[in-house]
Specification:
- This protein is of the alpha/beta class.
- The chain has 10 helices and 14 strands.
- The protein has helices at about 20-30, 85-95, 115-130, 135-140, 165-175, 220-230, 235, 245-250, 255-260, 280-290; strands spanning about 15, 35-45, 70-75, 80, 105-110, 145-150, 180, 195, 200-205, 240-245, 265-270, 280, 305, 310.
- β1 (about 15), α1 and β2 (about 35-45) form a beta-alpha-beta unit.
- α2 packs parallel to α3 (about 115-130).
- The longest helix is centred in the middle third of the chain and has 14 residues, at about 115-130.
- The chain is globular.
Length: about 325
Amino acid sequence: PPPSGLPLPRSLVWAHSACTLQSLLEALADSSAVTAIETDIVMGRVARGGEEGTENGGAGETESESDGGDVPIMSHPPSRSSDLSMERFLLDVTGGEHGERTLRRHIKLDFKEIGVVDPTLRTIMRLANEEGGLNALANGRTIFLNADVLPGPGNRDGTARIDGDLFLGTCSRATTGTRRTIPPVVEEKEGEDVSATPFAYSLGWNVNYKDWRDSYTNEDVDRMRALVKEHDLASASAGIVLAVNGRILARDCSPFDSFLQDVESSQLLVFTGAGEPPILSAEIDKITDHFARQQQGISFVDRIGFDCKIVDSK
């Protein structure tokens, strides 16, 4: 079964790139379908055109935006302007119908540069303190902290977008002391410790899917495993999700078998990137079939999630 700190991968229905006020409000309004919201964070300028119309606890211009300087905003590089600041995003995604602040969806914060990490997490912690702690704010939902922290297939001569040690160290310092008890996904055993933090890590590699000769290797996974071990993520977080490109993964899934075996609080999220063409359904089937096979008596298929644009192979 999946660890109690992470939602089941296939239970998540994502609203992606909620980087404008309109897209965020649309995701929050679709309570019957959208269960998780993903957004990108960079430093930039807040455009004023869309600040009106927030609902359920949203406010007007926030104090941090009032001087017109660079602040953390929801935007995908290379854009450095948005009508949705990081603070506004958090205010709206935790806004309640009766003024209380609790997370209304699972959220994934995709950090595109290291400078936005600390102020974002400190804002979350401030909101939590105002609500009586993370238990009240998180409301049983998960906050995924996402970054590409290692160079990977097709980009082996490059550098990671964000240094892994710096990212994980910054997150750890900002969220120290955040453990709380959350409802387990599965029925807990008598005496089982189900304490966890709402923060989970979503870690990936900088890749280039166009390099058809390259694939994920045991060395790639070993370097990620070393980061996870060094920062004690298995016990200090709700879980670890490795974000892997589906087109690259389909070339060879086997390097991830030992990671899933050794790190019980881990999952894979298989994705296709922005601007990437759809992946063939046959490649999705190949990935599913691989992880459905028993590895030392264990199937990992329930710990594999898909966030891919798919085209029928026929």
